[in-house]
From TrEMBL:
<feature type="transmembrane region" description="Helical">
    <location>
        <begin position="180"/>
        <end position="202"/>
    </location>
</feature>
<dbReference type="InterPro" id="IPR011701">
    <property type="entry name" value="MFS"/>
</dbReference>
<feature type="transmembrane region" description="Helical">
    <location>
        <begin position="379"/>
        <end position="400"/>
    </location>
</feature>
<feature type="transmembrane region" description="Helical">
    <location>
        <begin position="119"/>
        <end position="139"/>
    </location>
</feature>
<feature type="domain" description="Major facilitator superfamily (MFS) profile">
    <location>
        <begin position="54"/>
        <end position="470"/>
    </location>
</feature>
<dbReference type="GO" id="GO:0016020">
    <property type="term" value="C:membrane"/>
</dbReference>
<protein>
    <recommendedName>
        <fullName>Major facilitator superfamily (MFS) profile domain-containing protein</fullName>
    </recommendedName>
</protein>
<keyword id="KW-0813">Transport</keyword>
<feature type="transmembrane region" description="Helical">
    <location>
        <begin position="50"/>
        <end position="67"/>
    </location>
</feature>
<keyword id="KW-0812">Transmembrane</keyword>
<dbReference type="InterPro" id="IPR020846">
    <property type="entry name" value="MFS_dom"/>
</dbReference>
<dbReference type="Pfam" id="PF07690">
    <property type="entry name" value="MFS_1"/>
</dbReference>
<feature type="transmembrane region" description="Helical">
    <location>
        <begin position="87"/>
        <end position="107"/>
    </location>
</feature>
<dbReference type="InterPro" id="IPR036259">
    <property type="entry name" value="MFS_trans_sf"/>
</dbReference>
<keyword id="KW-1133">Transmembrane helix</keyword>
<keyword id="KW-0472">Membrane</keyword>
<feature type="transmembrane region" description="Helical">
    <location>
        <begin position="290"/>
        <end position="312"/>
    </location>
</feature>
Amino acid sequence: MSQYEEKRDSLDVKKDISTLEYMAQDDPWAFNGKSEEWHAEYNKKLLRKIDFRMLPLLSYMFLVSYLDRSNLAQARLGNLQQDLGLHGTQFNTATSILFVGYLLMQLPSNLLFTRVKPAIYLPTVMVIWGVISGCQAAAQNFGGLLAVRFLLGFAEAPYFPGAVYMLSTWYTRAELSKRFAFFYAGPALANMFGGLIAAGVLKDMDGYRGLAAWRWLFIIEALMTVCVAVLAYFILPNFPHTTNWLCEEERAYAQWRIANDIGESSADEDDSNKGLLHVAKLAVTDYRTWIFVLMQHCVLLSQTVTFFFPSVVNTLGYGNIETLLLTAPVWVATFLLNLLVMWSASRTNERCFHLCASMALTIAGNIMLISIHLRGPRFLGMFFMAMGAQPAFMIILTWVPNTFPRPLGKRAAITALVNMIGNTSNIYGSYLYPSSAAPQYVFGGATIAGVGVVCMACAITMRFILVRENKKLDKVEREGDFTLAPSLSVKERERRDLARTGFRSEASWMFYGTIDQFIKKA
């Protein structure tokens, strides 16, 4: 019997627009009765449409988002610091303040996103942050730059969580890993293109129309952002149930396959609909949440070098234009490694060892930065610093939903906690690379190497926890008692519900199979 035929007796679900949860519905298109061959062909056809319509645009929007938040690092090499009279750690503060605004807007934007059309909301916030980013060119002093950077973080906050949530409404969990690899290629490509664009602008546009080259850099990249936003108004789709570029059958099938993947039509679904306080309690009382929070915090802290990378490379002794050009191959290598790591993690359904390998690369790079004075090995260390942190971030991004599949509300709350608290590291991480610490940046490099070790320890601990939890799920499944009595604890109810579906966490490919096994038995 095929995996689709096995689901005929299970509940179909549909998305409730008011809560974005799932509930039982009829199957007017009789998708449950279709053959496996029909599903394979129809699914392939639909995925091609979704990929072509949405994935390149979302990735490019993320690219310009990252370009606008990180171009301050390139502008620094164009005498921004001298022109604005910045001294001490004021440049670090201007970098850090963006993330204060970013964090303050996270929760309101997430709540608003569930009530508006993404095809309107995301391009609109993009226009807003593009205009604000361009206003950096008008800054005349530290106070002006600080105000604009704070507003930029505030305006950029809705995009990343909104885009990630939008992807999760179109793709199954088995499909998300590869799509996240392409989506999160944005930062690496932004740093690569940002360095090349900055090299050209700083070399040829200084004094053009009476403006410094670094001011032109902000203006040009802001115009790029606004142009992409206008294009997105016409191309970006809405959610599967509200989009208008698919036929009625395709819309129904897009909803059906995501509902089957999530399997939220469980007896424990009521727990997802008891309100925000209830799902927040489920999230904060699960100790695994805080291990993921710590891992994400460490990984994002290791990425703060991104916002100072041109200055770090500048310590090799090259000129400003040569320095910007030298950053490009680093980010090309990072982009390629991102794709390789996520392909391997998806292929093997393993997260722990991939994350540890990525962080080991970051640790090695930081140790090389602070301990070696030779130009060649130091540059290699800078490659490793950049290449390790980004794949680790994407691994956590996919590991969390695969560890907490249901209730849906709990999964959403944990994802929000991991991202919000994790991003606080960017606020103080901006002070790890002051200009006074050049060229070795001993404190920053040693700190990142240390948190890398902490992150690896958390990942290994989580792996053992999930292996143990999988064994408990095996035991419940063997016993065959899946009743969810009210007298049971929340954890036991959750465990019985997961065991009923056949779900197992992605702890190790040697012991447990793919997420498809969960789908087959859900």
